[in-house]
Amino acid sequence: MEFSRKSGLRRAINGVASRGGMAFLLTVILALSGCAREEGGLPDDPPAPEDPTAYEETLPPDPVYDEANVLYVAPAGNDFGNDGSLAAPFRTIARALERADAGKSIVLRGGTYREAVRVRLANITIRSQTGEWAVIQCPMNDPDLDVAVLFDVDASGGRLQRLEVVGGYYYGVMFQTRWDWGDPGDRTGASRMLLEDCRIHDTGRDCVKITPGCDDIVIRRCEIFRSGRRDDGNAEGIDNVNGDRMTVEDCRIHDIATNGLYFKGGAQGCVVQRNLIHSCGNGGVMVGFDTSPEFFDLQANPGYYESLDGTVRNNIIVDTGYAGIGIYASSRPRIYNNTVCNAASRGQNALHFGISFQDWEPEAKRPATLEPDIRNNIFVQAAGGDDHVVRIRYADELGGLSALSGMPVMSHNLYFRIGGGACLFYDQRPGSFAQGMSLAQWQAHTSGDGDSLQADPLLNGQNKLSASSPAINRGRNNTVVRYDIDRVERSGIYDIGGDEYDD
To answer: Ramachandran region of residue 342, left (φ > 0), alpha (ψ -120 to 50) or beta?
Structure first.
């Protein structure tokens, strides 16, 4: 099963009149219409990565808080008689934003703030007071309050730190873009943003929405959960359409109506590392997906690749309805040391090479995935779903569309099917059609996936390696991977999967 054109556009158009006029309307249209199709024919070659050392894994810095340039807000404050000092705080975030200039920190005293927040200035930080906890809450059934926290196009450099964001008719947190309005030569959006140590949940649709041109967004140590509470038909944990160099690290993403997260639409250099992602109605992590052609940057990406140079490493992905890791129209994806367990209970496969149809538009190129590098992963297929742990799709539409160009570079992976039975592999492409291959046949077919094995990984209750796991000391050392999901530095011979066993 592939997922395509997003629904709800008419509701979106009817629901944004009160929030920013035509600019916001066009952006919501953009945000809700980002899906696609696939093609035959050879796409333009993707550009080579500029700096391979950028793929090396590092740990994030400790949080930094500005304690000097601050305005305070408190539930018992006063918007009209107070000056925003600690002794005389404002009552609403909106009032603090009116009084703020670029670079200000707005510090919220503990409590709940029932308002939609729109940040228009650069380098604004909103955070809880140290030792306290603040909640920004919006209803998810009021179309006039479509986003709980919106960073507008001029709000680059902004931060949300130690906050809880609840609700929003569409999104909990959204980053705004100029992509489809204003100066045609300026497609920038809110960039260089940080979401750190936040909880974002119970949203109408997506928890976090990143629109085209919103680049260099870091989402770190956040809990993101219960998306799609109003509309569960298209409600990701993190929905990134053409936002370059997104980093999602050390997060827990769970109870998501559709996909845990994806980066698509030509998103370049995105990294997803050391996250626990579980209980997703559709997929876990989608590297690329399916995007409407108007949202691609054809100067940077003339081949319409959905993702370029994306990295997914050291994640544990559990209990997905569809693919644990899906790879769609992606150039040079790197998939290293992930544990994918009980994936694809409703369809697809623990590792799935999918097809992007890109709205069936004649100008789109719908490329096959190119040069994937897939090593040191545990792939466990759920019982009752597809029999195949890995599948390379092919579709007859539009003259024939392949999910993959050539063969994947793979090695040191561990495969298992819950309930027992042989792990099966499926390449649907003409000329290499092979259904129901064993691991040995798959290795011969691909001339690769060496040092991989079929075995029960013997995971514990946290889906980490037990002492007797066959994944221990069976991996391939990789300079791009340094840590496991617990941020423990790997040493000796690497283990397979997201966890490095430590007794």
So the answer is: left
Q: Compute how many other C-beta atoms are within 10 angstroms of the C-beta atom of residue 98.
A: 11
Three-class secondary structure of residue 483 per DSSP: strand
In this structure, the strands spanning 434-437 and 424-427 are antiparallel
Cα separation of 321 and 280, whole Å?
Answer: 6
CB 137 within 8 A of CB 117: no
pTM: 0.91
Question: Which neighbouring-strand residues pair with 173?
Answer: 149, 208
- The whole-angstrom separation of Cα 105 and Cα 128 is 10
Task: Report the distance separating Cα 463 and Cα 2, nearest Å.
Answer: 28
Buried b (16+ CB within 10 A) or exposed e, 430-468: eeeebeebebeebbeebeebeebbbeebebeeebbbeee
| pLDDT attached to residue 22 | 35
DSSP of 355-419, one letter per residue?
--BGGG-TT---PPBB--EEES-EEEEPTTS-SEEEEE-EE-GGG-EESBSS--EEES-EEEETT
Q: 357: which 2 tokens?
A: 């149809």
pLDDT at 53: 53
% the chain with pLDDT above 90: 84
Question: Is the Cα torsion angle 250, 255, 256, 262 positive or negative in sign?
Answer: positive
Q: Are 438 and 417 in contact (CB under 8 A)?
A: no
Distance in angstroms (rounded) separating the CA atoms of residues 65 and 497: 35
For residue 12, what pLDDT is reported? 30
Distance of CA 313 to CAs 185, 249, 501, Å? 36, 10, 16
Tens digits of residue pLDDT in 329-383? 999 999 999 999 999 999 999 999 999 999 999 999 999 999 999 999 999 999 9
* Rg of the chain taking only CA atoms, in angstroms: 23
Regions of the chain where pLDDT drops below 70:
1-45, 47-54, 503
- Rounded CA gap, 187 and 395, in Å? 34
- What 3-state DSSP class applies to 40? coil
User: Across-strand partners of 393?
Assistant: none
419: tokens are: 């309930």
Phi (first) and psi of residue 283, to 5 degrees:
-95, 170
The DSSP element (H or E) to which 25 belongs, if any, is: helix 21-32
Taking the C-alpha atoms of residue 438 and residue 450, their distance in angstroms, rounded to an integer, is 14
Distance, in Å, from the CA atom of 304 to the CA atom of 295, rounded to the nearest integer, reads 10
> What's the length of the chain?
503
- Burial state string for 355-394 with b = 16 or more CB within 10 A and e = fewer than 16: bbbbbbbeebbbbbbbebbbbbbbbbbbeebbebbbbbbb
Domain boundary assignment for the chain: 9-404
- Please give the pLDDT value at position 482: 96
Residue type, position 36, single letter: A
Could you tell me the CA-to-CA distances from 458 to 277, 469, 472 in Å, in that order?
A: 19, 5, 10
Domain 9-404 has what CATH class? mainly beta
Is residue 149 within 8 Å of 165, Cβ to Cβ?
Answer: yes
